[in-house]
Write a structure and sequence with these properties.
With about 325 residues, the protein is an alpha/beta fold. Helices cover about 35% and strands about 15% of the residues. Strands 8-7-6-9-10-11 form a 6-stranded parallel beta sheet, sandwiched between helices. Strand 4, helix 4 and strand 5 form a beta-alpha-beta unit. Helix 1 crosses helix 6, helix 1 packs parallel to helix 10 and helix 3 crosses helix 4.
Length: about 325
Amino acid sequence: MSEIERHILVLRFSALGDVAMTLPVVYSVARANPEVRFTMVTRPFFSRLFIDAPSNLSVIGVDPKDYKGALGLWRLFLRLSRLKPTDVADLHNVLRSWMIDNYFRAKGIRVVMVDKMRSGRSRALKDKIRQKSFVDRYVEVFSDLGLKIPGSFSALPELSAPDDFEVRHPAVGIAPFARYLTKTYPPELMVEVIRNICRKGVSVYLFGGRGEEAAQLERWAGEIDGCRSVAGLYPIEQELRLMQEMDLMVSMDSANQHLASLVATPVVTLWGSTTPRCGFVPFGQSESRSIVAGLECQPCNVAGAPACPRGDLACMRELTPESVASHILSELASTKK
């Protein structure tokens, strides 16, 4: 089989931040291997991240709700097999993707899975061993498939801004929420961080999801001069554009740090139960922008947990609003966009 016939199926269904981390790698690999076709398979909403994709990269949105159970996955396999892939790059490595992988293996198609290093996680947490970056793990998958890996991605192109929005500089975007409590800076402390920043004449823009998050951020914006919420107001493409307009983004260990990185905006990340050692430092970001308490119990989990093992969330609460605001302002002063 000649190289020009190669067609690589790339699987990563969730979560938003993890899918965002695949984009720099997939774009770089596709551009470096123009003779190979690539098809990215992810959730429909996440597929909208793949803006200005290389011409040899297609993106398919798949809703897991439409393919439940073994029979559903068999139907998904049949759909994907009609694409006639020659290889499968499994960047997810979960039960759903394993079943699809096995169907393809049974047809003689090569499958390479990302190494999530599950067996070594307990020891890594206990001995505080730095985990390999997930971006590097994604790179390894394509390297194992014999592809060129140049690392050519820098950022998504300039996107279309909302017509009704004008950013006032200096501008700091803050995304204060994360999936787990143990990765979220306490809201009452974050409000004080925002007040401290706004007092310095910096415009703060709050990012978050629809519903309760948007309602809470709207309340904060109403209470603090110089603060505005954009949560839930715009489609993700325009939200990325707003992040592109920020001089600096502030995020938890959540999808927002990875989204901001796609548009090359500097990101300050607050870490709690997880730390940069867990392998989720955003693409292209300096680890010096990370804010970590440095407690002996950190990290206590690779991906976050619903509850703090100590019960006091000291990893977050020991980061005072004054110190966090000072770090943000210092990074802002050193940032030139």
